[in-house]
Design brief:
By secondary structure, the protein is α/β, with parallel strands linked by helices. It has eleven helices and twelve strands. α1 packs across α9. The protein is globular, with a radius of gyration of 20 Å. Bound molecules: 1,4-dihydronicotinamide adenine dinucleotide and magnesium ion (MG). Belongs to the isocitrate and isopropylmalate dehydrogenases family.
Length: about 325
């Protein structure tokens, strides 16, 4: 069966890692027709809209998109295209399966933590006001509907993938109403899934526990702000931003993407790590029923990383990158 997928290569290292990804997908034999579009800075540089209507139409038609990182400039320019996509497509769940890869950059081997982040509200609802000069208020929005929906998503995922435990992360000791409501919703849903263990942890302690004793965690369930921060922390435990995939699951469509940004510091040098993009594509393949191809891809990457010969400098640490540079070499990307 042929699948039609919307593909946004994105900015910075996006096109490089997208090309590497395409070759890996091709090698699995799965039939995919990519509908490729510019978005973000790349689209604006060509004089267009950062999120052209034809891109939205393509995603809504195909229901699935694969996306490279998009550059969002701090404090100026257009609104984040990522946020716009999230809003328009109602991408309410951000899923990040975080698994250790074999590499010297990996702080803990054998970790396998699934992070589920609420993707639409909390402090990222975008409600900020200058109350008076020098005083700004940002509002944290927590709703029962969105909290129940994300908790259900997490517990259903746990049931389907035979995960054992979900830890809800909060700061309800301080934000008694907002985080209190989030927790109440998590508890309510947890009761309907007796086969999945459930516990709660305060977010600052969670960060410390993740660094000291991460094996205690199986799945994390978080509102938007904590989810953003803690999921990058998790990435740092298993090999870095270059190896962790992500999926944004929505009611109108789903968008798969690596969790890292456009990495302008290394763009165009041929040293970007395509692993996260390739793993995100594997998640997408699983989502569209191509599990065999997904497994093939993931296993191939594990083998290549395990051999340690053809990997990008971010996985070898600074010393190895320096060694390569001395020999006049950059890293080899999946030749
Ligand atoms: P970043 O993720 O682009 O880079 C952080 C560090 O990680 C850099 O040192 C970079 O070289 C390294 N890195 C990231 N991906 C890598 C890869 N695949 N291989 C090797 N090294 C990698 O985050 P930063 O610098 O905060 O943001 C840069 C731009 O990306 C900003 O405009 C930001 O808005 C955007 N961004 C976009 C995201 C998206 O489209 N989903 C997510 C995060 C940031
Ligand atoms: Mg983030």
């Amino acid at each position: 069966k042929k699948h039609i997928i919307t593909l946004l290569p994105g900015d910075g290292i996006g096109p490089e890692i997208t090309n590497a990804m395409k070759r890996v997908v091709e090698a699995t034999g799965v039939l995919i027709e990519w509908e490729e579009h510019l978005a973000g800075k790349a689209a604006m540089d060509k004089g267009g809209d950062p999120l052209p209507q034809e891109v939205m139409d393509s995603i809504l038609r195909n229901k699935i998109a694969l996306k490279g990182p998009l550059t969002t400039e701090v404090g100026k320019g257009f609104r984040s295209v990522n946020v716009q996509l999230r809003k328009t497509l109602n991408l309410y769940a951000n899923l990040r399966p975080t698994k250790s890869v074999p590499s010297p950059n990996t702080r803990y081997m054998g970790l396998d933590i699934v992070v589920v982040r609420e993707n639409t509200e909390s402090l990222y609802a975008g409600i900020e006001n200058e109350i008076s000069p020098g005083v700004v208020q940002a509002s944290k929005i927590i709703t029962r509907d969105a909290s129940i929906r994300i908790a259900k998503f997490a517990f259903e995922y746990a049931r389907k993938h035979k995960r054992k435990k979900i830890t809800a992360i909060h700061k309800a000791n301080i934000m008694k109403l907002a985080d209190g409501l989030f927790l109440a919703c998590c508890r309510e849903v947890a009761e309907k899934f007796p086969e999945v263990q459930y516990n709660e942890m305060i977010v600052d302690n969670c960060c410390m526990q993740l660094v000291m004793n991460p094996n205690q965690f199986d799945m994390l369930l978080l509102e938007n702000l904590y989810g953003d921060i803690v999921s990058d922390l998790c990435a740092g435990l298993v090999g870095g931003l270059g190896v962790v995939p992500g999926a944004n699951i929505g009611t109108e469509a789903s968008v798969f993407e690596a969790v890292h940004g456009s990495a302008p510091d290394i763009a165009g040098k041929g040293i970007a790590n395509p692993t996260a993009m390739i793993f995100s594509t594997a998640l997408m393949l699983e989502h569209i029923g191509e599990k065999a191809a997904a497994t093939k891809m993931v296993n191939a990457i594990y083998r290549v990383l395990g051999e340690g010969k053809t990997v990008t400098p971010d996985l070898k640490g600074l010393v190895a990158a320096y060694e390569l540079k001395k020999k006049g070499l950059n890293a080899v990307v999946l030749e």
